[in-house]
Amino acid sequence: MLKIDNLNVSYGAIDAVKGISLTVNDGEIVSLIGANGAGKTTTLHTITGLVPAKSGSITFDGHDLLNTPSNKIVTLGMAHIPEGRHVFTRMSVQENLEMGAYSLKDQSGLQKDLDRVFGLFPRLKERRHQLAGTLSGGEQQMLAMGRALMSHPTMILMDEPSMGLSPLMVKEIFSIITRLHDQGITVLLVEQNAKMALSIADRAYVLETGRITMQGDADDLLHDEKVRKAYLGA
Ligand code: ATP
Asked: Which ipTM score applies to this complex?
C-alpha cells in the first residue's frame, strides 16, 4: 500500500504540492486528475525520489520512500512510467525491455519476462529489432509500459499515458492497464483525460493548484456536476 501524508513540495519559491494526503490500497487503480500545472507530475516524481519533498511522508509497504534512493525504490516493487515515455531511442525495442530488468538480481528469467511482455504487446514482438526512436507514440507508450513490467512491479505509477495518442490508441492503452490490474498490479494513474481515468479507476483524487479538492469513488466523481463541468467538458 502507498500512503502519502501531508506532502509539501516546492521548486524554490514555487509551492507545487501543498499538503496533500492520499492512499492507494493493494490491488486498486487510483487516478489523480487535474489541469495543467496542478502538481500531478511533481507528486509522482516525489514518490520515486526524483524530486525532494519539503515536508510530509510517503510510505510504500511500510518503507519510508522519502529516505530511499530511486534505484532502491524499483527493487521494492514500484515502477514509474514517466510522462513522455522516455524510451532509449537509439536502442532496439528488445534492448529497451532488457534495460527494464537491470534491477533484478536474478536475470535467469529474462526470456520468460520478455515473452510475457510480448504476450501483452504483440506489436512490440513484431518490432523487437526496430530502434525505439522510430516507433509511433502509442508503440513507445507500450514499450515504456513493457520496460516497467520487466522489473516485476507490484505497483506502477503512470504519468499521462494518453498524451498525444489517437482515441483508438488511448482505448488500447487503457484496456492494457485494466489487464495489468486484473493480474494484481496496483496502479496510480495521473491523467488529464479525466473521462478515461475515472472510467477505469476504483477511486480518484482531484488536484487543483497543489491541493486535493475532491476525492472519492471514481464512478461518483464521473457523475459529479462540478467534475463534469471542470474536467469532462459537460
Ligand atoms: P501537467 O499536466 O501540465 O504536466 P502537472 O499537474 O503534472 O501538470 P507539475 O508538472 O507537477 O503539474 O507542475 C506543478 C507546478 O510546479 C507548476 O506550476 C510548474 O510550473 C512547477 N514546476 C514543475 N517542475 C518545475 C521545475 N523543475 N522547476 C520549477 N517549477 C516547476
From this structure: 0.89
